[in-house]
Amino acid sequence: MYEDFYGFSERPFQLTPDPAFYFESVTHKKALSYLGYGLNQGEGFVVITGEVGAGKSTLVAHLKQKLEDDQMTVGEVVTSALDGEEMIHVAARSFGLDVGGNDKAGALAAIELFLHEEARNGRRVLLIVDEAQNLSISALEELRMLSNFQLGSHPLLQTLLLGQPEFKHLLAQSDELEQLRQRVIAAHHLDPMQPGEIEPYVMHRLGHVGWDGNPELDGAIWNRLHKATGGIPRKVNQVMSRLLLLGAVEEQAVIEVDMLDAVLDEMAGDNAPQVDEQRVRPDRSLPASEAIARAKVDALQNVASAPEPTSETAAPAPAESGLLDLQIQAIEQAFAERDKHMAGMRREIERLSAPPATQAASEPGSDVAARLEQIELRLDEQEQSLRQVLAMMIDHFETQGTRAAA
Questions:
Q1: Phi-psi region of 309 (alpha: psi -120 to 50; beta: other; left: phi over 0)
Q2: Residue 350 in contact with residue 375, Cβ under 8 Å?
Q3: Fold category of 26-190 in CATH
Q4: Which of 38, 87, 289, 377 is a Cys-bridge partner for 46, taking CB atoms 3.0 to 4.6 Å apart?
Q5: pTM for this structure?
Q6: Cβ of 291: how many Cβ atoms within 10 Å?
Q7: Is 279 helix (H, G, I), strand (E, B) or coil?
Q8: DSSP letters for 156-190
Q9: Where are the bilayer-spanning segments (predicted)?
């Protein structure tokens, strides 16, 4: 939608990796250098890690464009959670080899034969394994074993491992991966973009789709955009896409910082924990006082059991403030309910305490003493119900305070 309004040839901030939009930030330039060095060695493992959305897949797609098809064969594996035997079969299929069943020995033989044929034809073989943090230790060990295939003294397979930060930590700390660590010839961790790279990054992508100055971008948005996204390219794309959509909907020719703030507030609301605000209604089969008390307790329990915010979903202070508002509202409702019933009972007492003539005219033969006793019992019930609700509230507040202090 917004690409039509602003006259772009395509969407400049799509979330799927596209090598055509590759932007060489400082960290991506270093990663490409490490990749180039590793590929020139022609053996072992090259490891690239980074946060989700840091640009690993785009980097590899850009790298593949630079490789000569007649000199290198590339197989790609995007893993879920593979064990050792599954890894062998998936690797074989990534090279187009027809292996079936659970015959591991047959799959290994097919891979070795394929590697020898490629070497005799003057072609190198690269296996790219994405989402390596999901691999089991046994699967990583099988990849290491594949790297042992040689033709004389010439290695036949090189492997590029892409993973999130936890894979970097696993590789560095696991005693079971010592032999794999010794075969890593180059490694780089993709850092977020620096504050000064946000504007060039956005302009690079806009320029690729034919941006001609429409919309104009307020220079005040860049620092705010970096702070909100942490410099992660995919997050920048997400925010910019929503920002341009807002600009198109409101037919704005200038994208200003207040529009960015509105988008960020909206996105924060999308990620905020949802509190069940469904009204708890009293059970009509119970006496009024007991039904009201139980309904209030259930409402408080719903508030107390609402999901607590995390660092990835919402800032603690606003979420806690919202929860406190709900608690205060519940207290106010409890007191309002109590006051309502108390006022009604006072009116009843005044009516029953009226002069005998008036009383006789309105309620001949009524037992005033019995009615007063009944009302006193109802007042006691209301008082007990309110105390029960307040006890629940106090207990909840103390629990919340203890948790916050911890």
A1: beta
A2: no
A3: Rossmann fold (3.40.50)
A4: 38
A5: 0.65
A6: 16
A7: coil
A8: --EEEEEE-HHHHHHHHH-GGGHHHHTTEEEEEEE
A9: none
